[in-house]
């Protein structure tokens, strides 16, 4: 069994701006949602059987309480933000496991799902479909891998070491030292990627650094590490069998019609048949 967990928030952004370029700036009300659903269906058509999608039901999380400058929903275009909740409803109607996050983030849901799935002996591989460097910390050997759709690369532990210069488990420490502008924390002054990797490979995690290495910046580095560390205890599912796709629900026809894409239902039913499901709803 191969389990696929997908970063729905990232994919929604990707679809939104990709379609905007294709449509010369004209945004369709559900264009990004429709594009993402077709992308998920393509995965089923290529043989995926167990799949879940994590979304940010709200942008803010507990991390905003830890660091005031942590990323917020400010600046997200209204036309894109308006498709967040319809995406969750559409995925559920299509019969796909979806995890809308409120206190936590979508990345936390992906990390939790990867941990839970990897603990099941029936699971051969867990594929995390997400480009975010945060998710590299979840990679474990070749059992839990990160699929970089943009870079067309499947990254196992060796791939993480090659790309970032440290073991997957040290990714939160690396991000704490160099910062993550996308998430809104700056890192430690005068420590770049090369220096950070050297320190981590020499001493291990930040907690093991000699006091002289970071000096007064130690507590801030540990705070940033807390921000970068993904939670793995989100109750996303109890059994991987919950992730098996068995086809759309009875409400998906109306959902697809409401989004103006009748091909979704046809393609959905065909994919279900290809995976051994019934030919009719």
Topology readout:
Elements: E1 2-7, H1 8-22, H2 31-45, E2 50-56, H3 63-66, H4 78-81, H5 84-93, E3 97-101, H6 106-118, E4 125-129, E5 144-148, E6 153-155, H7 157-164, H8 171-178, H9 193-203, H10 211-214, H11 218-228, H12 252-258, H13 263-274
Parallel strand pairs: 1-2, 1-4, 2-3, 4-5
Antiparallel strand pairs: 5-6
Describe this structure in words.
The structure is a single chain. Strand 5 and strand 6 (153-155) form a beta hairpin. Helix 1 (8-22) crosses helix 2 (31-45) and helix 2 (31-45) runs parallel beside helix 5 (84-93). This protein has helices at 8-22, 31-45, 63-66, 78-81, 84-93, 106-118, 157-164, 171-178, 193-203, 211-214, 218-228, 252-258, 263-274, and strands at residues 2-7, 50-56, 97-101, 125-129, 144-148, 153-155. The two termini are 26 Å apart. The protein has 281 residues and is an alpha/beta fold. A 6-stranded mixed β-sheet has the order 3-2-1-4-5-6, sandwiched between helices.
Key attributes of the depicted protein:
281 residues, alpha/beta, 6-stranded mixed beta sheet, 13 helices, 11% strand, globular
Structural class by SSE content: alpha/beta
Order of helices and strands: EHHEHHHEHEEEHHHHHHH
Terminal Cα span? 26 Å
Mind summarizing the main beta sheet?
6 strands, mixed
| Major sheet: arrangement of strands | 3-2-1-4-5-6
Distinct helical segment count: 13
């Amino acid at each position: 069994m191969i389990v696929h967990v997908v970063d729905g928030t990232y994919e929604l952004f990707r679809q939104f701006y990709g379609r905007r370029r294709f449509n010369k700036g004209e945004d369709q009300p559900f264009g990004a949602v429709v594009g993402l659903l077709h992308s998920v269906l393509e995965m089923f058509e290529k043989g995926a059987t167990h799949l879940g999608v994590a979304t940010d039901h709200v942008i803010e999380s507990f991390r905003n309480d830890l660091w005031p400058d942590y990323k917020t929903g400010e600046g997200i275009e209204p036309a894109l933000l308006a498709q967040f909740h319809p995406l969750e409803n559409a995925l559920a109607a299509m019969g796909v496991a979806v995890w809308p996050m409120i206190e936590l983030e979508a990345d936390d849901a992906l990390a939790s799902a990867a941990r839970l799935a990897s603990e099941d002996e029936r699971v051969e591989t867990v594929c995390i479909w997400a480009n975010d460097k945060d998710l590299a910390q979840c990679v474990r050997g070749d059992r839990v891998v990160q699929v970089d759709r943009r870079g067309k690369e499947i990254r196992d532990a060796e791939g993480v070491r090659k790309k970032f210069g440290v073991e997957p488990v040290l990714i939160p420490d690396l991000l704490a030292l160099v910062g993550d502008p996308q998430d809104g924390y700056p890192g430690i002054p005068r420590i770049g990627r090369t220096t950070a990797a050297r320190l981590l490979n020499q001493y291990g995690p930040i907690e093991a650094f000699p006091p002289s290495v970071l000096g007064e910046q130690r507590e801030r580095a540990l705070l940033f590490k807390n921000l970068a560390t993904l939670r793995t205890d989100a109750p996303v599912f109890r059994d991987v069998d919950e992730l098996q796709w068995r086809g759309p629900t009875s409400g998906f026809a109306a959902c697809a019609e409401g989004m103006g894409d009748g091909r979704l239902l046809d393609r959905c039913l065909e994919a279900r048949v290809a995976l051994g499901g019934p030919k009719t709803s």
